[in-house]
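Review form for a predicted model. The reviewer records the input and the model, then writes brief findings.
Reviewer: anonymous (R2)
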Amino acid sequence: MNDRVTPAMHALPDGEAELTLVVRLPWEDVARLGQEAGRLAAQMRRPVTLEEAVSHRLRSSRIAAHAKPAGEQPPAVSASASVSSLPSRPPAEQARQAIDRINGTAGTA
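Model under review:
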């Protein structure tokens, strides 16, 4: 049983809603979120959390989808479609490589 007392969703004063959820992601997706947070932090000139990066990405996708001409549907994307197909590796190796990419040290060792 989950001991959290926080409601799964609540209204914010600005008219938006905040959802609480848990998502299981491959390390490659976590690395991409870290890169997105880094880009957003540079743009905003302040630290950015992964949650902010996800929220920004979802808003950007929603706005882009609404900007499409009538009748044109955005392509369906599976949860793993944003990650290039890679040969299967042990989870520890995946984690190390994802962390190296986030830190910008991939390929320098």
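Findings: Strands lie at 9-11, 17-19.
Further findings: Residues 77-85 have pLDDT under 50 and may be disordered.
Recommendation: see findings above.
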